[in-house]
Amino acid sequence: MMPRIFKADLHIHTCLSPCAELSMGPKAIVDQAIQHGLDMIGISDHNSSENAPAVMEAAQHKNLRVLPGMEVTSKEEVHILAVFDSVDKAFQLQEIVYEHLHGENDAEAFGLQVVVNEDHDVLGFNKRLLAGATELSVEQVVDSISALEGLVIAAHVDRETFGILGQLGFVPEKLHLDALELSRNTSPEEARRRFPEYADYAFVRSSDAHSAADIGKVWTSLLLCAPSTREIKKALRGEDGRRVLPEDAVCTTS
Amino acid sequence: MTIREVVDKAHLEILAQPDGLDKEVTGGYASDLLSDVIAYSKPGYLWVTLQTHRNIIAVSTLKELAAVVLVNGRTPDLETLEKAREEKVIVLGSRLPAFELIGKLYQMGIRGNL
């Protein structure tokens, strides 16, 4: 099979994240992603994957691949993005994360944590303190995701708070990361200038969308044969003709 | 003031590397963002933090800090202790929360450099 270009945004929140808008339901996310010509999105709420299945359902029979994931907070308050192919794997990570995440959410202070189905019907409220930090070190988070064969991405490394470079000063040696993520504020070119010591890492850019209007503002163009984590890993390593393309590589038809 | 004097007066526990306690403390800095410590701490400073990740040792070495002081009774990660021994970085601990400890250190005459 010939590789083709996939427009990917691997970091999108739903109404399960206390800081995201309540309108971030499955259909709104899927519609907005398709409207902006995205081929692949990752659902990554803070310390939970409970809404990922609903977004996957909402994208069924549509030209959009939804990858379930999570944005895990390590005990150093570093955000690490996990991306999987199956809900099963995401839920296995969720089990580990829940075991090491304490406290109860105060909806007034942090926001509601709404669990929904594909039609945005409210199934319930997550009571855990999803805005909190787990007791897992950044190494333990990375190892847990890797053991489940997930994609490990250090989230928004260009942001001072909750990014690995801000919290820990630099990427610890021997930490296995598949990529470094950039927020919409920094392009990969700027990042290579600003972080020359990490120029060899693959950079991906994501919206980190907390509202539907954020979706489609930035993305990563990947040359893949299929929208799977295995293919993405190859692209991030530049193997077998798969690779990360410059940002302007996609001619948008919309 | 030497590190030893600070340890005695502020009732700090020595968590790693008990040698080199006669080094002079030139000032202090408090932050839990390591990038911020890299930017603003100075050689000979005491660094007050709650971070226990092994990167605190590398930052101390890089900035030639006098010692790291962990607050709130936190203990360093195992790898952090190993790194501290390798790099000969002094790690101290206090049962006090950061605010109280820093108040005490300030009263003892340790200052940040404004």
Outline the fold blueprint.
The complex is a heterodimer of chains A (254) and B (114).
Chain A: E1 4-12, H1 26-35, E2 40-43, H2 52-58, E3 65-73, E4 79-83, H3 87-99, H4 107-110, E5 114-116, E6 122-125, H5 138-147, E7 151-154, H6 164-168, E8 179-182, H7 188-194, E9 203-205, E10 220-224, H8 229-237, E11 243-245
Parallel strand pairs in A: 1-2, 2-3, 7-8, 8-9
Antiparallel strand pairs in A: 1-10, 3-4, 4-7, 5-6, 10-11
Helix pairs in contact in A: 1-2
Chain B: H1 3-9, E1 13-16, E2 27-30, H2 34-40, E3 45-49, H3 55-63, E4 67-70, H4 78-87, E5 91-93, H5 98-107
Helix pairs in contact in B: 3-4
Category from helices, strands and their pairing of chain A: alpha/beta
Q: Figure out the total of helices of chain B.
A: 5
Largest sheet of chain A: 9 strands, mixed
CATH class of chain A: Alpha Beta
Residue share in helix of chain A: 25-40%
- Largest beta sheet of chain A: what is the strand line-up? 9-8-7-4-3-2-1-10-11
- N-to-C SSE series of chain B? HEEHEHEHEH
The CATH topology of chain A: TIM Barrel
**Named CATH architecture of chain A:** Alpha-Beta Barrel
Low-confidence stretches of chain A: none
Mean pLDDT of chain B: 95
- Identify the most extensive interface between protein chains: A-B, 14 and 15 residues
Poorly predicted ranges of chain B (pLDDT <50, ≥5 residues)?
none
Strands of chain B, total number: 5
And the CATH topology of chain B? Udp-n-acetylmuramoylalanyl-d-glutamate--2,6- Diaminopimelate Ligase, Chain: A, domain 1
Beta-strand share of residues of chain B? 15-25%
Q: Reading side by side through the largest sheet of chain B, how are the strands ordered?
A: 1-5-4-3-2
State Rg of chain B.
12 Å
Number of domains of chain A: 1
Integer-rounded radius of gyration of chain A: 17 Å
State the CATH superfamily name of chain A. Metal-dependent hydrolases
